[in-house]
Write a structure and sequence with these properties.
Elements lengths: L3 E6 L4 H17 L2 E6 L4 H7 L5 E4 L2 E5 L4 H9 L1
Parallel strand pairs: 1-2
Antiparallel strand pairs: 1-3, 3-4
Pfam families: Glrx-like
Protein name: Thioredoxin family protein
């Protein structure tokens, strides 16, 4: 099953940079497509997720926030 990962982040966010690096590494190893989206560019995203960035979405559904829990993330991508 093909998965798509989105990292909701914002500029100048250290936790976002760390999460993006983790997602890039893990998704690269698993061959999973991923992208980033600026939470501040969309008022609806900012209202819903602005206090939680970085937020990791898998197939558009919230998987986690603040940090990538590697084992849990890998399991979700390989189920």
């Amino acid at each position: 099953m093909s998965r798509t990962v989105t990292v909701l982040s914002r500029a100048n966010c250290h936790l976002c940079e760390v999460a993006e690096a983790d997602v890039a590494r893990i998704c690269g190893e698993l061959g999973v497509e991923w992208r980033t989206e600026d939470v501040d560019a969309d008022p609806e995203l900012r209202a819903e997720y602005g206090d939680m960035v970085p937020v990791i979405l898998i197939d558009g559904k919230q998987h986690g926030y603040y940090r990538v829990e590697e084992e849990r993330f890998r399991t979700a991508l390989t189920r």
